[in-house]
Amino acid sequence: MLSIAERHKYILEKLEKFGFIRITDVAEELGVTKVTIRKDVKILESKGLLYKVHGSARLANPHIADRDLMTKSSLNREAKSRIAERAAQMIQEGDSIMISAGSTTYALAEAIHALNPAPTINVVTPFLKVSALLNEIDSIQVEQLGGCVYKKSFATRGETASASLGDMVCTKFFLGVDGFDPDFGITTSTIEEAHLSRKMMAAAAKVIVVADSSKFGHHGFGRVATIDEVDVIITDVGLSPEWVKIIEEAGIELITV
What we know:
Layout: H1 4-18, E1 20-22, H2 23-30, H3 34-46, E2 51-53, E3 56-58, H4 69-73, H5 77-88, E4 96-99, H6 103-113, E5 121-125, H7 128-134, E6 140-144, E7 148-150, E8 155-157, H8 159-162, E9 170-175, E10 179-181, E11 185-188, H9 191-202, E12 204-210, E13 222-225, E14 232-235, H10 241-249, E15 253-256
Parallel strand pairs: 4-5, 4-9, 5-6, 9-12, 12-14, 14-15
Antiparallel strand pairs: 1-3, 2-3, 7-8, 10-11, 11-13
Helix pairs in contact: 1-3, 2-3, 5-6, 6-7
């Protein structure tokens, strides 16, 4: 049986390596009860060494603040480009796709724009920059969702934006997120964006999350859905083995690039 100090050392080393742990997993690995690990995590949290979130613990504060598109676009650009290129490969001739707002989804629009030959598809989006870019291609029909434009994201939101979604049936929804968490689910930084994304999910046959590995283990203010409502995740190779295990256990197809 490990001592308290040894358990704490194990927890902190695992967090340092993966950035995230599940209390159930650590209890099984150490052969102790979940109650014991919860107490350990509470002690470590009181010392400011980690953040406890329901059945898990994180090395850093998991909450993501709302940031403007320019700031988001400057982060993890290479990973986002690889994710976008892989996502574009999933688009088939005749598809009707939806694209949410975000820096990774704009990279997807750029990847679609670069396809040669360009596919004949319909694109539905609240994101003005995506609409403007893809409208340049003759074979792509763009449906811009209306509504109030949110200045930080250059995207529409609100009831007007979602009003026409009930009349649409799309093959794929490419969803950018601010956070992906087993406890809090898929989240964005604002409630309004989360509500619109939820409506877009309901209008799609397949939901594909495009997110770099830094988004995993964090959460925004607005909840979109639970993780089991996602069909596919495309992310970069920086995703930890712990997260790979969580995603696979949820029955989600995982693609890393």
